[in-house]
Each structure stands twice: as C-alpha cells, then as structure tokens.
Amino acid sequence: MADTARDPPPDRTDFHEVEDGEDLFPEPSAETPESQPASLSAVDISTNANGPKQDSFFDDDNEDLFAEATEEVSLDSPERDVLLSDGPSPAITPITPPTSVITPRIGHTHDDMFTHSSFDEIEEEESGDSFDIHISVSDPEKIGDGMNAYMAYKVTTKTSMSLFKQRDFAVKRRFSDFLGLHSKLASKYLHIGYIVPPAPEKSIVGMTKVKVGKEDQSSNEFVEKRRSALERYLMRTVKHPILLKDPDVLQFLESTELPRAVNTQALSSAGILRMVNKAADAVNKMTIKMNESDAWFEEKQQHFENLDLQLKKLHASVESLVCHRKELSVNTAQFAKSAAMLGNSEDHTALSRALSQLAEVEEKIDQLHQDQANADLYLFSELLGDYVRLIGAVKGVFDHRMKTWQKWQDSQMLLQKKREAEAKLQFTNKPDKLQQAKDEIKEEIEELEGKVQQGERDFEQISKTIRKEVSRFEKERVKDFKMIIVKYLESLVQTQQQLIKYWEAFLPEAKAIS
Amino acid sequence: MMQEGLDDGPDFLSEEDRGPRAVNVDLEMDATLQVDISDALSERDKVKFTVHTKSTLPNFKQNEFSVVRQHEEFIWLHDSFVENEDYAGYIIPPAPPRPDFDASREKLQKLGEGEGSMTKEEFTKMKQELEAEYLAIFKKTVAMHEVFLCRVAAHPILRKDLNFHVFLEYNQDLSVRGKNKKEKLEDFFKNVVKSADGVLVAGVKDVDDFFEHEKTFLLEYHNRVKDASAKCDRMIRSHKNASDDMNRIASSLYTLGTQDSTDLCKFFLKVSELFEKTRKIEARVAADEDLKLADLLKYYLRESQAAKDLLYRRSRGLVDYENANKALDKARAKNRDVLQAETNQQLCCHKFEKISESAKQELIDFKTRRVAAFRKNLVELAELELKHAKGNLQLLQSCVGVLKGNT
C-alpha cells in the first residue's frame, strides 16, 4: 500500500502492494504539483536531492516507478530503517528506538496526501473490507509497588480487517506507551497537516494517589476516567484512515513487547526539549504575519477559535454540574439518614412508617443522583474535554501551515537576494574572480530556485491536506456530538423514569397516614 | 429598583387563592373568626402586611376590616402571649421568623455591579431569576406570618385575647418599638437562665406517665427535626446549584448552535431549548421541596420548641408546687406564717393543675396537627415530584425523539 508514496496523486487510484519492502509510489498524474512532505531543515538536503528525481516518477508505468523507487530507497535506506516504515510490508519494520522520535523523519513518512476518494480506494484495494475495528481498554491492573508502580491496561482489538494478523487479540500496555505512540504519530504527521488525536493528559496527582495505593472513590474514578479516555483515544486514532495503517499503530495494537517510551517522561531530556520547542513555537507564531489569500482558511481558523472558546465554556459549566450533582447526592443521603432518625422518634405509628419510607426513597434517589453525575461526567464532560484538546491539535495543524508558508517566503527572499547579488557581480571588474563567483552564485541560485519550488509545493500540499482533514474532522465531530449527546439525554430519561417509580411507590404510604 | 416590580401587592398574591395558606397547619375553618393576610408590600427594609379579618363575633365593631401591620407588631403579640401567666398551660404558636431579604438583596446588587461583564440576554435572565427568588422569599414570609395569625384565631382561648383583638382591629400604628439593647440583653439572660433551669427541671422525673413520655419524646424529636431541617436545606441548595448550572449550559449550547455551520447547529439549538425547559422544572422541584418539606420541618422545629416550653412551664409549676408544699410543712412545723404558706401552696397547686390539664390537651392537639400537616405535605410533595418528573420525562423523550429522527 502506498504509505510511503512521496506524492499524492489527486485522482490516481491504482496502487500496488509492495512485494519486497520497497516503497510504493502511487502513480501521480502529471499535473499534480510535486510535493514532498514539508521538510524540516535537517532533512532538507536529502529531500532536495530526491526532489528533482521525483519528477521522473510521474509516469504511468508502475514497473518503471518501482524500478526507480528501488534506487531511491537504497539511497536513503539507512535513514529509512531508523524510521518506522510504513505499509503492511512486514520486512521494513524495525522497532524505532525512542530517540528517533526526535529526529525529523519527514522525508519518508508514510502518510500520503491521498485524496479522499483514494482513502476509500486504498482500503478497498487493501483488504476489501469496510472499516471494522473495535478496540477496548480494560482491566486496569496495578503493577509494582511504591513510586515505581504503574497501571497496566489490557488493549483488546477485535477486527475483520486484513490489515491485522489476527481477528481478536489483546496486549498489555501502560500509560507511557500510549503517550509514546502519540508522540511518534505527532512527529510524523502533524507538520504535514494531519490532525493527530491528542493523547489523554498526564496527571501527577492522580497517579501518585494510585501509586501510593489509596483505594478510595476519587482514585477509582481517576483510573476509570483514564481507562475510558485511553479507549476513546485509540478509537479516534484508528478511525483516521492514514493513521490506522501506520506501523507504529499496528505495532502498538499487536506486538506483545513494546520498547519503553522513556521520552514521554516530563523531566527527561526529550520532555525538556519538547517544552523548549513549544515555547519557541509560541514566540514564532506571534511573529509570523501571513498574508492569507485563501478565504476558506481564514474562515475556518475563526470558526475553530470560536468553537474552542465556546466548548471551553460549556465544559466548565458541565464540570460544575457534575460537581453539584455529586454534592446533591451526598446531601440527599445525609437527609435520608436524618429522616430515618426522625421517623424513629416519631411516636405516631403511621407517620413514623411514612417517614421511614421517605428516608428510603431519598436514599434511592441519592444513588440515582450519583449515577446521573457519572453519566454527566463520562458522557458529556469527557466528550467536551476531548474536543477541546482535539481543537488544540487542529489549531496546531493550521500553525504548521503558517510555518510552511513562512519557510517558502524565506526561501523566496533569499533567492531574490542572491539574484540581486548575481546582477551586481555582472558589474564588478575583477575578471579573475568573476567567473568563479559567477558559477558559485549560479549554483546557489539554482539550489534556491529548487527550494522555492519545493516550498511552494509543500505549502500547497499542506493546504490541501488540511482541507481534507478539516472536512473529515467536522464530519466526525458532528457524528460524535450527536451520538453522545443523544446517549446522555437518554440517561436523563432513565433517571426521570426511575424517579417516577420511586415517588409512585411512596405516594400510597403518605396517603396511608391517618 | 427592586421595589418597582414588587410593590404591586395585589398582582403577586392574586395567583394563589385568597384563603389562609395554612401550609403547615391543619386548621378548622371557623366562620366566627377568619384571619388572613390579603396583601403585602416590600419597602426598603420592612414589610407591611395587610391583615384582613372577617368575623361575626360581637367584640368587633365591624364584620370585616383590615389593618396594616409590621413584623415587630407580630412579635409584640407573640411575646404578650408568652408573658401572660394565664396562658402558661398552652402551646403558644411560634412567632414568625423575621423577613430576611439580605441574601437576595446582596445578589441583586452584585448583579447590578456586574452588568457590564455579561451579555444583555444573560443579564436579563439572571435578573429574572433573582427577582423570582426574591418573590419566593417574600411569599414565604407572608405565609409564615399568616399561619401564626391563623393558629391564634383557631385556638379557643387565645382567640379571645384582648391584645389579639387590638392587633386585628386597631387601625393605627401600635407604637410597638423593637426591643432596645437593654431589653435584648435581658431577654438573652432570661433565655440562658431558662435553658439552665430547663435542664434541671428536665431531670425531675414526672409521676405522670403521659407527661414523662411526652418529655422524652419531645426532647428527642426536637433535636431530630432540627437535624432533618438543616440537612433538607443543604439538599435543596445543591439542587438549586445544579439547576443554575443547567442554565449556563443552556446558554453555552445556544451560542454554539448559533455559531456552528454544520448540521450541529440545529441540534445544539434543540438541546439548548431542552436544557432551558428542564432547568425550569428542576428549579420548580427544588422550590416545591423547599415549600413542602423544608418549611414543614422548620415550622415543626419551632412548634416543638413551643411544646417544650410548655412542658418546661409545667415542670416549673410542679417544682414550685412541691417547694410550696415543703414550705407549708416547714411553716406548720414552726407554726409561723402558716396562712401565707397555705395560700401560696394553694395558688401553686391550682396553677399547676390548671397547666397540667390544658397542657395534656394541647399536646394531644399538637400531635394531631403534626400528623395531619405531615400527611398533607408529604402527599403533596410526592404528587408534585411525580408531576414534575413526568413533565420532565415527556420533555426529554420528545426531544430525544426529534433528535434521533433527524440524525
């Protein structure tokens, strides 16, 4: 499957399975702008080197494509091997040592800018089955003791997709494994415009309680919240057609042993580097002033800003509701006890009995409130929290687009300067150095021209990807919200039905007082 | 600002029936003397109640008349009953609590200050809510003052009290000033002495089984009602908080609905509407629980205290009687002041017996009233809870139906 393909053919649909671990290049149509995934500076040179060669791949002959691909691959295979290769080809799947998470792997990432139709095509070509995979995270188990203890979760996958080796399998994973997975995916896909679902957040307080072994309501809730969040995270990740096929994801789901992702620890060198990068990004964002020529992007950015604001507000209100409902449950339980006491001391028998019944009703109602508060939390509140984080990822992707534009502009400016320098050279009168300088400049100009072209391609590529991703994201959002909110409302319906039952049972008791 | 909407007394009272709103008390409707509060006005820091009387009794100049009274005048009337030795053997109907709008007023003020920081819709909504709250407190205080008067009017002895008639009829200000500091201090010490005394007196075992039982019962009951009342209040407050949250959720959903460009906008608007409506129902549930349960418990907290006071007075009387007996014996032994001692002893005996007799009836009546009131309120509470739950259910089910149909 064409995971490693360099260029996204907008309407190309024939793909071939790679036989011997070569990269598969889809057949791009001639007019598609060649776009390498946006490259970070470290890999610039290599991609540039590959850049021009890409052109020759744009032809309809699959065989030729592969032939050239072979050459291509061998040039960079050392680097490739380091990165997790893509594709269903099992051969190229070295386990990525954690350190490589930091190295830019842009050059040969497997996500391709497939067109939407290609997504479906690929899946059909690939396995002939529709999206059918269900992941569940269960059985949180505390392993170890003291501060080194951790929770291990069972990740069970049930699927009929031929992407996987089995139909029903399970592995044990810990929280840092999930973070590691996200980290890898983010470094591979975010900067080219794919919305990678964010992983659940770390919580020092929550985990410490668990480590220490405090078995109480709040730590149980913490574990359950986390378990549920991990499940949602995995489901969202595999729902993304590109991410589903990423070997890191497949490895995560399938292989029994997984190397410890130590770089996810907050205080590791990787963690600190992440923080520094984040700060740098924030500063950069403020200084980049992009001339938005595309109204679609401007509108969408505004839309996501508004959505972010409103969802945060709604989330805060729902969290407050959860809190108050829990309070209500506690207070109702206390009142129930008090009413029971009152019933005990009441010396009129029928009234005494009625008061005891009232106490029982209130006790049942308090349980009802507790259950409802849980529904409030796990359905509504968590959904909102997830989307607040997801929108963060969306905004990040827009930011990457800005960065890509900036790079392109920078290259252009540099080219301009070099051209001016070249023009100046024409008028100097140092003939002996002139030719050498002229040649140098000519080379640099050629290089820069390539860069500029590449930059433009990258920018257009990421813009295209983002458009598709946003449309997919919005579809998912609509589906998610509708489904979960309806489920939540159904929980409210159930609560009311129970309330009716309880009060109906009580009424005759009250009437029986004489 | 607040006064404008609330000074139109007739309007706000018109929705409820004009009969005595004896929520917590089961009273027989006696045609010879009917009292109710037909109107009320809320001014800066006082409430003016219009007390309306309908009577066929000859003592009154007219058959139907009204006067305006303030809270302090109710307290004056109550205290005059308490201080009247003739009424020692009766449960004095508990005085209505002072109208307390401070909390509500503070909230309205805060709202006014924060007007700039919220949207016009939010501001109007919150203002409406606070005004509704203010109104609810207002109605409650009117009801409690009315219950007091009705209880007095229904009591065979107290209804004949002269002060009561003056209270009802005298259409000028009674010039009852609130207690000044010195008097308040005196009251405080009186209470301290009373409670200490009460403890001592409570220790005295009563020969009479009935009263002994009542004493034990009332002591325990009073404490438990106090506890239940406090816990009930807390529960209702949580309920109100949750319903406030729903209000904010409805607003947020509404904004989301208006901003969204996808299918979700209609969806959000519908859910926002649902939350608005369901919140109103939840708020009503909390209000009804407050009225039927919390107020009931509060009232019986006060009444059980009044009953305890009666028992105390009787015990006091018993102790006085026993002391008088001892004094008489001593006097007879010394053969000095025998006549005085005898008169005293007879007085105490008479007082004690009078109190005991009426107290027994009073306590039996108290039980009957209590049972009836609880029955009425618990039935009404259950019926209201059912009504609201069914309404809520229908709302939710229809909304879910619409949402599912559209998806």
Automatic annotation (TrEMBL), chain A:
Does the entry feature the keyword Cytoplasm, yes or no?
no
The record's region (Disordered) falls at 1-61
> What Pfam families does this protein's entry cite?
PX, Vps5
Q: Where in the cell is it found?
A: Cell projection, Lamellipodium; Early endosome membrane
One function term, GO molecular function aspect: phosphatidylinositol binding
What's this protein's name?
A: Sorting nexin-2
Q: Does the keyword Coiled coil apply?
A: yes
Question: What is the role of the protein in this entry?
Answer: Involved in several stages of intracellular trafficking. Interacts with membranes containing phosphatidylinositol 3-phosphate (PtdIns(3P)) or phosphatidylinositol 3,5-bisphosphate (PtdIns(3,5)P2). Acts in part as component of the retromer membrane-deforming SNX-BAR subcomplex. The SNX-BAR retromer mediates retrograde transport of cargo proteins from endosomes to the trans-Golgi network (TGN) and is involved in endosome-to-plasma membrane transport for cargo protein recycling.
Q: Which residues form the PX domain?
A: 131-260
Q: Family, per the entry?
A: Belongs to the sorting nexin family.
Show the InterPro entries listed in the entry. Answer: AH/BAR_dom_sf, PX_dom, PX_dom_sf, Vps5_C
Q: Which UniProt keywords apply?
A: Acetylation, Cell projection, Coiled coil, Endosome, Membrane, Phosphoprotein, Protein transport, Transport
Q: In the UniProt record, which is one GO cellular component term?
A: early endosome membrane
Organism, by scientific name, is Xiphophorus maculatus
> Which residue stretches does the UniProt record annotate as biased composition, category Polar residues?
32-53
Membrane-protein topology: Peripheral membrane protein
Give the highest taxon in the source lineage. Eukaryota
Q: Which residues form a coiled coil?
A: 431-465
Highest lineage ranks of the organism? Eukaryota, Metazoa, Chordata, Craniata, Vertebrata
* GO terms (BP aspect): early endosome to Golgi transport; protein transport
Q: Which portions of the chain have biased composition (kind: Basic and acidic residues)?
A: 1-18
TrEMBL record, chain B:
What is the name of the protein in this document? Sorting nexin
Matches recorded under InterPro entries: AH/BAR_dom_sf, PX_dom, PX_dom_sf, PX_SNX6, SNX5/SNX6/SNX32, Vps5_C
Q: Could you say which protein family the record assigns here?
A: Belongs to the sorting nexin family.
The answer to keyword Transport applying to this record is yes
Superkingdom field: Eukaryota
Listed CDD domains: PX_SNX6 (cd07292)
Any GO molecular function = phosphatidylinositol binding
Q: Give the keywords, sorted.
A: Protein transport, Transport
Lineage of origin: Eukaryota, Metazoa, Chordata, Craniata, Vertebrata
**Keyword Transcription carried by entry:** no
Record GO biological process? protein transport; retrograde transport, endosome to Golgi
- Origin organism is Xiphophorus maculatus (Southern platyfish)
SUPFAM superfamilies noted in UniProt: BAR/IMD domain-like, PX domain
Q: What is one GO cellular-component annotation here?
A: endosome
